[in-house]
Amino acid sequence: MCLGIPGRIIDIRDDGGLPMGTVDFAGVRREVCLAYIRDEVEPGDYAIVHVGFAISKVDEEEARRTYELLKEMSQLDELDWMEEVAEQGLGQLDETTS
Amino acid sequence: MKFLTEYRDPALARRLIGRILSTATRRWVLMEVCGGQTHTIVKQGIDELLEPVIEMIHGPGCPVCVTPLEQIDKALHLASRHDVIFTSFGDMLRVPGSTCDLQQVRSRGGQVRVVYSPLDALELARSNPDRHVVFFAVGFETTAPANAMAVWRARELNVSNFSVLVSHVTVPPAMTAILESPDNRVEGFLAAGHVCTVMGWTEYEPIAERYRVPIIVTGFEPLDLLEGMYLAIRQLEEGRHEVENQYVRSVRREGTVPARELVAKVFEPVDRQWRGLGTIPRSGLGLRPEFSDFDAELRFGLGALHVTEPDACRAGDVLRGRIKPFECAAFGTLCTPERPLGAPMVSTEGACAAYYNYGRFRADQQQAAHRE
To answer: Could you tell me the pTM of the whole model?
Structure first.
């Protein structure tokens, strides 16, 4: 969880005062909070994302290289967590799901 | 030099290695702080390549590894409650507590959910108003901005069934504790690049000055690490002790200011216990009093739970750099990534797991492995 994963910002919007955006991580798309770098980025830019929060803007070359390295190091666990969240959803739990 | 072919730019790697070897007039002891750096160093054999002039000690920069047993047990306690949905980053699920781990609690019917972002946990609380959602807020300065925002947002949106079990740790006090230790051997640090992306490096300047150690802000690619080591060795040979930034493509001196500001609004420094290292003063982050409504320990009255660490696991000695992982009797026998005894064997950022996965065993262990 200490190594951020680079992704490409697809769109940016305001969610009740919180800047959010869709970020593409080599094909996996996820909602990411952009509050900390909102003034620096536009759609199409790349950012390093830690647990759902963009922390710094990077260029495309750096993003690509970092992603490849993380893949080699098997440090992309966070993508699995994204999938788990996507599968289970964040809606109401019924009593039988436990 | 079998490792060199694997580098992105083997010629540059060779040049850096040559410069390190020709600059050093003696053997220096450096510590890499970040678990991601440990992983790269062990995988690429960088420490073995530079063994004549550098001893690398692997630092405590793996958040999973340093989370004390006590906090894990508190997590297990909360996860077992019927009225609680316990949420956590995925890599905490297999960390052993005193009796079991979160995965086992889940298989026995506990509501344990993996989330990717702490905002996922908040969303879960909003859609389940009749349950209480607890988020396990762990990590170094890299996850603190995310966790701070979840709490900030919970207050803003008035979400009263959400709280956090906080086990945040911060890097600079741990470095200070290592330097203050009477048996310290570390002469220079490679500071964690992504932590500094958030926090910048101003906090490291008084440490470099006071303890006269070079601190190099370093990335986690092989070439980053070689360059960081070269900059550290050059300072040591010239008798300098400054903070230098190798990771210029990501880190600015002031860090990511809005993130630092929110972390400071939500959290304050607190004394924190580290697995194997004991309690380090002001080395953790706790919720500020104005956010105490969101403190799971207060809400569920967990303050009195105290736990002692198991004897067989020597995680503390590994995290302090006193022994290499394979010098622990349990390493590779009682303790493997499949059945971890201690946290450094659980996380891929942990020194024990890195040594195990890349075949770093004691000579006799290696022979035994060959016989099998």
So the answer is: 0.91
Among A51, A73, A88, beta carbon nearest to B89: A51
Q: Do B35 and A55 touch (CB under 8 A)?
A: no
Over chain B, what is the mean pLDDT? 91
Domain chopping of chain B, boundaries? 2-62+174-191+216-245
Tens digits of residue pLDDT in B271-305: 998 887 789 999 999 999 999 999 999 999 997 77
Kindly report the CATH class assigned to A5-77. Answer: mainly beta
Q: What is the pLDDT of residues B307-327, one digit of tens each?
A: 777 778 888 788 777 889 999
Q: CB distance A50–B153 less than 8 Å? A: no
User: What's domain B2-62+174-191+216-245's superfamily in CATH?
Assistant: HypD, alpha/beta domain 1 (3.40.50.11750)
**Which ipTM score applies to this complex?**
0.91
Which of B117, B122, B198, B249 to probe the A interface (max A CBs under 10 A)?
B117
Cβ–Cβ under 8 Å, residues B327 and B191: no
Residues B167 and B137 sit within 8 Å (Cβ to Cβ): yes
The span from the CA of B264 to the CA of B22, in Å, is 44
- With CB atoms and an 8 Å threshold, state whether A53 touches B62: no
Cα(B331)–Cα(B41) distance, integer angstroms = 19
| Minimum Cα–Cα distance from A85: chain B residue | B115
